[in-house]
Design goal:
Elements (H helix, E strand, L loop, with lengths): L2 H6 L2 E8 L2 E7 L7 H8 L23 E8 L6 E7 L5 E2 L3 H15 L3 E6 L2 E7 L5 E4 L21 E3 L2 E7 L3 E6 L8 H9 L9 E9 L5 E9 L4 E3 L3 H13 L6 H4 L15 E5 L5 E4 L8 E4 L2 E8 L8
Parallel strand pairs: 2-3, 4-6, 11-12, 13-15
Antiparallel strand pairs: 1-2, 1-18, 3-4, 4-5, 6-7, 7-8, 8-17, 9-10, 10-11, 12-13, 13-14, 15-16, 16-17
The chain binds 2,6-diaminopimelic acid (API).
Length: 321
């Protein structure tokens, strides 16, 4: 095949979602001359890709929350996959929890492995495909220090007013401003989040996550979550880094107690100071399971991954092919 022919051929993509945080997946081997233009065009909610009605029964949502360019390195054991998330605004995010779960499922599907190392710009993350098909990914140690969030000041930002919202700043691979509220549904996120997302205290911007703490009759704590994402510049149906961020912030603010205390309490069976208590976090798109240990060990994120459909698009969005 001539170079000209290879350039003219369309690019194959797979559409996946993790708790309705949805992504186009493109093999990094494919020649995509301008990844930002590709993601901007095909992730667009009005004009982007959509299932053609033949491959899936019902037409799903058009567009996506981002494009994952994935490079598989299957000569290693476990196999590795290098993940680059290009967002609808053309920016690249260092990490994405649900995207990393999708990347691991994609690599596992191709190799038959049930463990995958996902290389992200925030570090290498170990992922495991569980027996029920869920994917668990390690999420590193949440950082509150100003240098790592990052913050444009020398002190951590804990329960302080930023543009009308009381937030705690934490980095879980990407920066989040977490606000605890009584009822996440009562928040007009599109109205309040943009000013926080662009506040001067966040030199690289921030994702804005609102969370509410729920407690059932047995005293078991869970969370509801809504996140306004940088790069999407809108609310997504789920956000993995946000789910970890809110649990880390809840622990920092002592809203859930430490494992040392809860180990003998109601949720004793689910507790361990090295692995951390398992918390269910419910964004609009489904349920995620999060652990954030008090000491040693890293946070984890677990949830389902769904392959929606496959398709082909012109490699240059503005070109007819
Ligand atoms: N949805 C992703 C987060 C993408 C990060 C991005 N919106 C940014 O920080 O720019 C997640 O599941 O963690």
């Amino acid at each position: 095949m001539s170079l000209h022919e290879s350039r003219a051929r369309p690019v194959s993509f797979e559409k996946y979602h993790g708790t309705s945080n949805d992504f186009l997946v493109v093999d990094a081997d494919a020649y995509v001359p301008n990844r930002a233009a590709f993601a901007t065009a095909y992730c667009d909610r009005d004009e982007g890709v959509v299932a053609d009605g033949e491959s899936v029964e019902e037409e799903g949502r058009r567009g996506a929350d981002g494009t994952l360019f994935l490079a598989l390195e299957d000569q290693y054991s476990p196999p590795r996959v290098i993940m680059t998330l290009v967002q609808p605004d053309g920016s690249t995010a260092a990490m994405c929890g649900n995207g990393a779960r999708v990347a691991a499922a994609w690599a596992a599907e191709r190799t038959g492995a049930d463990e995958v190392m996902v290389d992200t710009q925030a570090g290498t993350r170990h992922a495991r495909v569980e027996d029920d098909g869920d994917v668990t990914i390690e999420m590193g140690v949440p950082a509150f220090d100003p240098k790592n969030v990052p913050l444009a000041r020398d002190a951590p930002l804990v329960e302080e007013d930023v543009e009308g919202l009381t937030v705690t700043a934490v980095n879980t691979g990407v920066p989040h401003a977490v606000a605890f509220v009584d009822d996440v549904d009562a928040v007009d996120l599109d109205a309040v989040a943009p000013a926080v997302r662009h506040a001067d205290v966040f030199p690289e911007g921030a994702n804005v996550t609102v969370a509410s703490v729920e407690e059932d009759a047995e005293g078991e704590v869970s969370f509801r979550q809504r996140t306004y994402e940088r790069g999407v510049e809108g609310e997504t149906q789920a956000c993995g880094t946000g789910a970890v961020a809110l649990v880390a912030a809840a622990k920092q603010l002592d809203l859930v107690g430490s494992e040392a205390r809860s180990a003998s309490g109601a949720s004793g069976e689910r507790s361990d100071s090295r692995t951390g208590t398992k918390f269910t976090v419910s964004p609009p798109g489904g349920d995620l399971e999060i652990t954030v240990p008090d000491r040693r060990g890293v946070a984890t994120l677990r949830g389902p991954v769904v392959h929606e459909f496959s398709g082909e698009v012109p490699r240059r969005p503005d070109a007819e092919q």
